[in-house]
Structure formats: structure tokens, C-alpha cells
Specification:
heterotrimer; A alpha+beta (about 270); B alpha+beta (about 250); C alpha+beta (about 230); B: about 250 residues; OB fold (Dihydrolipoamide Acetyltransferase, E2P); Ribosomal Protein S8, Chain: A, domain 1; 5-stranded mixed barrel; C: about 230 residues; alpha+beta; Ribosomal Protein S5, domain 2; 5-stranded mixed β-sheet; 4-stranded antiparallel β-sheet; about 25% helix
């Protein structure tokens, strides 16, 4: 249940630059990464941000390419908000937040050029690889979207191509090659800002998320020397000023650097 | 010589009792025979007494019961609880007290006179208040706000703890929570249903009280908790207060 | 050639290594992870809470509601997210398995929701799910008469084995593979779930049930340890 005083209290604390869990507005909770949480997946990762936890699994299959992209592989991202992960999630068709989150994460990966879809072509016009990115929430304590996005890119990074039998033209599910997916260095990092009253924070807890009136998700990659925004989404009813957006993008640069370093560290440790 | 022997045995008995806090699980046989009576969260099956909850065993000569370690709040008459308004009806408000059932606050159980048309200006959906349970029936829980310390919560912070840990957080005759109140300089109301209201002058004080309560909450099963909490409070109390004095 | 040696080298009555942990979903009232070999199940419990819609309430007691679901990447051939007939059936038999164990007579009109998700599958998923659910229910403070444990007994060719793997499920030589998932309650040793899929002589079923009883006793000890060590 939402409490009316929570918003007031959070705003009061933010005016003093504090949050209820002792963090500062742009402090990120601790991130914990576990690789290979599901061995039948081509790649899988569990990401914890504070108490929030998301699993990502990569599965690959073959299919016909889209008409305008005869020699490119395809991708599909889903996000399931499992009722297991929160007393507020019900069973039934995906709610708008699950749909929106999946689409935002999908956009960032697609637009960044992180996946080289041309290298996923098996037979032009006839058969290409499809990458399924399935995200599921395991515990919701806010910021499922950033956790999900991080899990998605880490899972893609550690995934291995399944064996493809040229003769039968079938995927041998369960058999893996030693080849990674065709990825580039244009890895997108997703950062979501939440607006509460006049203040802006990142990495909200569930409590903070419930009282936020607006949010801005940015997905940034850095192929060369400059940060590139690949996707953006403003959510919620609140409006943002140009100055606010500018300030968020400034912070985003710093956070991008930190998360990038975290990703490097985790991938190195895995080896 | 005999007397001192007896005294020692009694002392030893007490010591071993407090050391052995036995955890039991549902279905576990915790006593045998007809001499012992089945208390809270136990059932008798022929000659055996079986635990029905995950908790700490409380065994005396005549009675055996289980003190739950987990589970939703079970409303009891006389408990002070913190509730949040779920809905308004003609005669009063439906209240969520984090129990299996919703509770009810009748208009006439408020200390001031309230017209039906003004109900939402007193308590609206999402408002929090401190209330007392004066009656528990089958599926019904009745609250009142008539009484000292009861009424609307207008500011401060609310934290949630496992309701089974509330007795430890309050301490014997309120000793534990008193320690925290003094050290943090905050007003703290602990609802038996696991909701705790902290109100301090400074946000810093409120955060400190919250941390202290979380410390107790995470260590409830530890022996010598009072000393550990006193140590923690001394160590973590911001020296900023000392610095302020210096300035 | 009869099935004299199990494909993973285990003895006929040997269970796969079990790893289990309680409290893995902090926002739930109770939760647990239960892994039997390569099969990993996560369960969480919400409740007791009022059951909506009202017409589904039982005025005489609280109810258990189970939802079993396999994560899309838990198997080699991806599973499309959403309800399947198989998961609906397993949800129902699991509900029937857990209901005799919980004591909800004092909570009419309420429901205890049990969510079971399979993170990784290698046969015996509904059993791992029930083992996880039992822990989650106890962890959530739901009153229970006794604990419940589950195991998938198999008849591979002519051998009764405990805790079958997918490889064993797919065995085709000799008498083939028969899959017999079952649950046993910890004190009464009664069965609350029993299913069978394959070919087994009537006279041999008792053997399978005894094997199940023995295996479940072992599993119950592990569940007990997990709960007690969670403090």
C-alpha cells in the first residue's frame, strides 16, 4: 500500500540531499552479477541491484528474415514481471510496464549497433538467426529496468552460438560452440532518472519509484571517444525542463563510466 | 552442602536454557507423553506434540509452545498498531494493518466528532495512523483512535519489520526501544504489526534511529543483544554532535 | 543390455546433489530455492491475504493457490512466455499436494499464493518445485501439520531409480522409461501427489512407492537443515 506521507518525507529528505536508505541522489546501490544461472540458455546472467534481482536468458533459433532486411538476423526482447517477485504483480497478459520496459531495453540494444545483425545471416532471404532476450524479475525493489538492461547486455556478452547442422539445416539445441555472438564494442548502458517533486535521483527503490511523478531513461554507448545516446524514453506525467534534462545527461556521463567499469570488471573476473 | 548444590543446579539449568534456543520446523516432534500440554503453534498427535510453525521452541515443565520467527501479523486485542486507510465506507474506514484481514475504524471510534461528509478530510486513502485493537472477531478487527498516543501520522518515516521481532525491538518493559529513542533523540512508536513510526527533529536523527532498529532486527536471535546494541549506538552515534558543541 | 549403471554413475537409490536456500526473494512473505542436480526451482509465497474476487473465497477456510511456470530459457528449446496446459495441470496437482499440509481453517476467505518458477530444467521439475514451495511456506510462517517432500521415481528399463534425469526420462531400450513423481508427508507418510507416465507392472508399483518414501525422508532432512540454518 502506498502511504501519503512517503512522498512528503522523501521530498523533505531530498531537499537535504538525502534518501531514506542513506544514499545521495546520484548514488547507485551495490551491483552483484552471477553468470550462467541457467545452463540450457545460450547465455544467462542474474543481476542484483540492491535487493532488486533480474534474470536474463539468451536463446537462439532460426527463422525467415524480414522483407527489407534479407541478410540480417533478428532480435526479440521480452520482460516478464513474475508475480513471484512482488506482491503487486498479478497473473495475466503482460501489463504496460512490462511491455514498455522490454521495448525500451530492446531499442537501446538495437539502435546502438551492439549486435552485428549482418553476421547472423545463414542464407540470404531464407534463413537468419533470431536472438531471444528473455528477462524475468525475481525480486522487485525498484529499478527493474536498469537491472534488466544490464542483465541483457551481460548475457549477450557471455552467450555462445549454438551448433547449427548445415546438412539438416537445424539448430542442435543443447550443443554449444565456442563462438561468441557477433557483438561490437557499441555496448549500450541504460540509466533511468526519476523525478520526485523538484529533485532527481537515479536507481530508485520501490518506495521511491512509487512516488516519482516522472522518469527519463537514457541508453548510452561509447563506440569512439564520445558518448552517443541510442535511445531515450520519458515516462510518467511530470514535465521536464531543458535544464533538468541537461543536468541528467551530465550525470549520465559519470554513471555510464562507472557502470562500464563494473561491466569490464565482472567480465574479466568471469574468465 | 546440599543447599549449595541445589542452587548451582538451578543456576546451571537457567544458563543452559538460555543457551539452547532450539529452532523447530512444522511437523517436528517436540515433546512426548501426556504430562506436557500443547501450547501455541503445536498440536497433539497421540502421544506426541508436534510443532506447526517455523520458530523457536519454548519448553517448560508443563507447557510447550513455539514462538514464530516469521509470518504475517496476527491481531490481538489491546495491540497498538499502525494502519493505512484502504477505503472509506459509510460508517468508517477500512484499514490495512498488514494482517490477513483488513481492520475497521468506525467514525465513532475517533476522539473528535466527524460528519460523514468530512470523513476524507480526517483520514483519506493512503493516510497512516496509530490505532489500538479493541476487538477481534472471526474475520473482523476493530480499531480505535481514542487514547493517548493514537491518531494521525503527519510526518516522519515509517519502516517495516518482521512483526515476530517486535517484542525484541521493544525489549523488556520497553528497555530496548528506550535505548534507541534516547540515543537518536527521536519519538518512536512501534506497532505490534511490524510498522514503526520514527519522528525526529533532524532527518539525520531519523536515519540513525532507522539504522539502529535495523541492527536490532537483524540480530534478534543473538545472545547478549542489549550490550551489543549499546556498543553499536556508542560507535555509530555521529560525532557531529560533539563537533557542533566545539563550534 | 539392461540398465545396470545409471548414466550419471549414481546408485539406484541415490539422489542428485541438493543445494537449497531459504529467503531468496526478500519482498515475499516466504521464499526458497531448491536445486536437485541440474534442476533448479524458485518458490515464493504471498499471504495469507484476502482472496479477490470474493466469489472464489471459501467461507470455511483459507485456500492455497499455486502457479507453476517454467522460465523461457530453462530448457534447450525455448518456451514461449505465458500459460501452457502443462503448467496449468502441474499447478493444480501441486495445489492438491500442498493443501492437506497447511492449516488454514482459522483464516476463512483468505488465500496463500504459491509461485513456483523453474530456473533450469533437467527432469523432476514439479518435484523440485514442491520441495521449494514447502520451504517457502514454512519460511512464510504458514501453519503446517507436517512438512512435505517430493521426488521423481523412475523405472528405467527394469530398474527402480530415485530422482530421474532427463537422459533417463528419454531412455528407450528394454522396458523404456516410466516417470513416477510423488510426494510424501513427513510424519504420516501419506501421499499427496502421485502421477505416472510409462509402463510398470502392477506388482512393482509398491516397490516404487517404497523407494519414494525413502527418498523423501532424505529430502525432508535436507529441508529441515535449510530452514534451521537460515537463522
Amino acid at each position: 500500500m502506498k502511504y501519503n506521507i512517503t512522498k512528503k518525507t522523501i521530498e523533505k529528505y531530498l531537499d537535504e540531499g538525502k534518501r531514506l536508505d542513506g544514499r545521495k541522489p546520484f548514488d547507485h546501490r551495490d551491483v552483484e552479477v552471477t553468470f550462467n544461472i541457467s545452463k540450457h540458455a545460450e547465455g544467462s546472467v542474474g543481476v542484483k541491484i540492491g535487493k532488486t534481482e533480474v534474470f536474463a536468458g539468451i536463446k537462439m533459433a532460426t527463422q525467415e528474415p524480414y522483407p527489407d532486411h534479407e541478410n540480417e538476423g533478428t532480435m526479440m526482447t521480452t520482460m516478464e514481471l513474475l508475480p513471484l517477485s512482488s506482491p503487486d504483480f498479478d497473473y495475466g497478459p503482460p501489463r504496460i510496464n512490462a511491455i514498455e520496459m522490454a521495448r525500451i531495453i530492446d531499442r537501446g540494444i538495437r539502435e546502438s549497433g551492439f549486435i552485428d545483425f549482418h553476421k547472423l545471416c545463414i542464407k540470404e532471404g531464407e534463413k537468419v538467426w533470431n536472438i531471444f532476450i528473455d528477462l524475468v524479475s525475481i525480486n522487485d525493489d525498484g529499478n527493474l529496468i536498469d537491472a534488466g538492461a544490464l542483465a541483457a547486455i551481460l548475457a549477450l556478452k557471455v552467450a555462445k552460438m549454438p551448433v547449427y547442422d548445415e546438412e539438416t539445416e537445424m539448430v542442435k539445441h543443447g550443443e554449444f560452440t565456442n563462438n561468441s555472438l557477433p557483438l561490437t564494442d557499441k555496448m549500450p548502458i541504460t540509466i533511468t532518472f526519476n523525478k520526485i517533486g523538484d529533485q532527481v535521483i537515479i536507481d530508485p527503490t520501490k518506495q521511491e519509484e512509487e512516488v516519482a511523478e516522472g522518469r527519463l531513461t537514457v541508453e548510452i554507448s561509447k563506440p569512439d571517444k564520445e558518448e552517443i545516446i541510442n535511445a531515450m524514453q520519458k515516462g510518467g506525467e511530470a514535465t521536464l525542463s531543458v535544464e533538468e534534462v541537461d543536468k541528467m545527461l551530465d550525470e549520465a556521463k559519470k554513471i555510464f563510466k562507472n557502470i562500464n567499469e563494473l561491466v569490464d570488471k565482472e567480465l574479466k573476473a568471469k574468465k | 552442602m546440599k543447599r549449595s548444590k541445589n542452587k548451582m543446579t538451578e543456576k546451571e539449568k537457567k544458563e543452559t536454557k538460555s543457551e539452547k534456543r532450539q529452532i523447530v520446523i512444522p511437523g517436528e516432534i517436540i515433546a512426548k507423553g501426556d504430562d506436557v500440554l500443547p501450547g501455541d503453534w503445536t498440536i497433539r498427535k497421540d502421544k506426541d506434540i508436534i510443532a506447526t510453525r517455523f520458530g523457536v521452541l519454548d519448553k517448560s515443565d508443563r507447557l510447550v509452545k513455539v514462538m514464530p520467527l516469521s509470518g504475517r501479523y496476527i491481531p490481538r486485542r489491546g495491540n497498538v498498531v499502525i494502519g493505512v486507510i484502504e477505503d472509506l465506507t459509510m460508517k468508517g474506514w477500512i484499514v490495512d494493518i498488514e494482517a490477513p484481514y483488513s481492520a475497521f475504524l468506525l467514525l465513532k471510534e475517533c476522539p473528535m466528532f466527524i460528519k460523514e461528509s468530512e470523513m476524507d478530510s480526517v483520514y483519506n486513502v493512503g493516510d497512516l495512523f496509530v490505532g489500538k485493537i479493541f476487538n477481534v472477531g472471526r474475520g473482523s478487527i476493530d480499531l480505535t483512535t481514542k487514547g493517548r498516543g493514537l491518531g494521525k501520522i503527519k510526518d516522519g518515516i515509517i519502516i517495516k519489520v518482521n512483526p515476530n521481532r517486535v517484542p525484541r525491538i521493544i525489549g523488556k518493559e520497553g528497555s530496548m526501544i528506550k535505548l534507541i529513542k534516547t540515543a537518536s533523540d527521536c519519538e518512536i512508536t512501534v506497532g505490534q504489526n511490524g510498522l514503526i513510526w520514527i519522528k525526529g527533529e533532524e532527518t539525520e536523527d531519523e536515519l540513525f534511529a532507522e539504522k539502529a532498529i535495523n541492527f536490532v532486527n537483524e540480530n534478534t536471535i543473538v545472545e547478549g543483544l542489549t550490550e551489543k546494541v549499546e556498543d553499536w549506538l556508542k560507535k555509530n552515534k555521529k560525532s557531529s554532535k560533539k563537533e557542533e558543541k566545539k563550534e | 543390455m539392461s540398465y545396470t549403471k545409471r548414466s550419471d554413475g549414481r546408485k539406484m537409490d541415490e539422489l542428485r546433489p541438493i543445494i537449497t536456500k531459504v529467503g531468496v526473494v526478500p519482498s515475499a512473505d516466504g521464499s526458497a530455492m531448491f536445486a536437485q542436480g541440474d534442476t533448479i526451482a524458485i518458490a515464493s509465497v504471498h499471504g495469507p491475504r484476502i482472496l479477490n474476487p470474493r466469489h472464489q473465497q471459501d467461507p470455511g477456510r483459507g485456500l492455497i493457490r499455486v502457479h507453476y511456470n517454467m522460465l523461457p530459457f530453462s530448457v534447450s528449446d525455448r518456451i514461449r512466455p505465458g500459460l501452457s496446459r502443462r503448467s496449468q495441470e502441474i499447478s493444480k496437482v501441486t495445489e492438491w499436494a500442498l493443501t492437506p499440509v497447511v492449516m488454514l481453517d482459522d483464516l476463512p476467505g483468505t488465500v496463500v499464493d504459491v509461485h513456483i518458477n523453474i530456473q533450469q530444467a533437467n527432469a523432476g521439475t514439479r518435484c523440485a518445485g514442491i520441495n521449494a514451495a514447502a520451504l517457502a511456506l514454512a519460511h512464510a510462517g504458514i501453519p503446517m501439520k507436517e512438512m512435505i517432500s517430493a521426488v521423481a521415481i523412475g523405472k528405467i528399463d527394469d530398474k527402480i531409480v530415485a530422482d530421474i534425469t532427463k537422459e533417463e526420462e528419454d531412455y528407450e531400450e528394454g522396458e523404456g522409461a516410466t516417470d513416477i513423481p510423488m510426494t510424501f508427508l513427513s510424519n504420516s507418510e501419506e501421499i499427496s501427489l502421485l502421477q505416472l507416465d510409462g509402463k510398470i507392472q502392477l506388482k512393482r508399483l509398491k516397490e516404487a512407492l517404497e523407494a519414494g518414501k525413502k527418498a523423501c525422508k532424505e529430502i525432508n532432512k535436507i529441508q529441515e537443515k535449510a530452514l534451521k540454518e537460515s537463522i
